[in-house]
Write a structure and sequence with these properties.
CATH topology: Dihydrofolate Reductase, subunit A
Low-confidence stretches: none
Number of domains: 1
Distance between the termini: 20 Å
CATH class: Alpha Beta
Mean pLDDT: 91
Shape: globular
Helix content: 25-40%
CATH superfamily: Dihydrofolate Reductase, subunit A
Strand content: 25-35%
Number of helices: 5
Largest sheet: 8 strands, mixed
Strand order of the largest sheet: 4-3-2-5-1-6-8-7
Radius of gyration: 16 Å
Order of helices and strands: EHEHHEEHEHEEE
Length: 177
């Protein structure tokens, strides 16, 4: 059975949206190597419509092993409004993502991967479908943006590991408690 891994870049003040505007040099060669290693153990990339509309134009022209892997692997977009996907190996799945992800977890051997902590990841965590939640905390205060918290939603987590990179970035890995 596949594991679902959610990995999100986060600032010290809890912002996870638009990391390209604040992550800067913290996403260094070590980060690329670590991300590629996890991606090579993954069978598919899952995303919501917003992530798809950001990633598809930016990542659909392979340049290097990381983007080549993403372009080669199956991608599943969960959206009730998107009707066509132009990015190769992309399937749109409308409706409730929980049953579809349960089914995807039953297929294949590698991980399922979600980048970011948007609505899709939060919904799947609430349904107990996330096996590992990685917050990659960057030593920068973003100052504004979408934060990790959702009003009225409480989810208890259990720390699995904490690792530090040479540049001060800390990765906290959790599972559902």
């Amino acid at each position: 059975m596949r594991n679902l891994i959610v990995s999100s870049l986060v600032s010290l003040d809890g912002v996870h949206a638009d990391p390209q505007s604040w992550v800067g040099d913290y996403f260094d060669q070590q980060a690329v190597e670590e991300s590629l290693a996890v991606l090579l153990d993954s069978d598919a990339l899952l995303m919501g419509r917003n992530t798809y509309t950001y990633f598809a134009p930016a990542w659909s022209s392979p340049s290097g092993p990381y983007l080549e892997r993403i372009n080669d692997m199956p991608k599943y977009v969960f959206s009730s409004t998107l009707t066509a996907a132009n990015w190769n190996n992309t399937t749109i799945i409308p409706g409730d993502p929980a049953p579809a992800v349960r089914e995807l977890k039953e297929q294949g051997d590698g991980h399922l991967m979600i980048y970011g902590y948007g609505r899709l990841a939060q919904t799947l965590l609430e349904h107990g479908l996330v096996d590992q939640l990685n917050f990659v905390i960057n030593p920068v205060m973003a100052g504004s943006g979408t934060t990790l918290s959702r009003p009225g939603k409480r989810t208890n987590l259990r720390l699995v590991s904490a690792t530090e990179r040479r540049n001060g970035v800390i990765t906290l890995s959790y599972t559902n408690a």
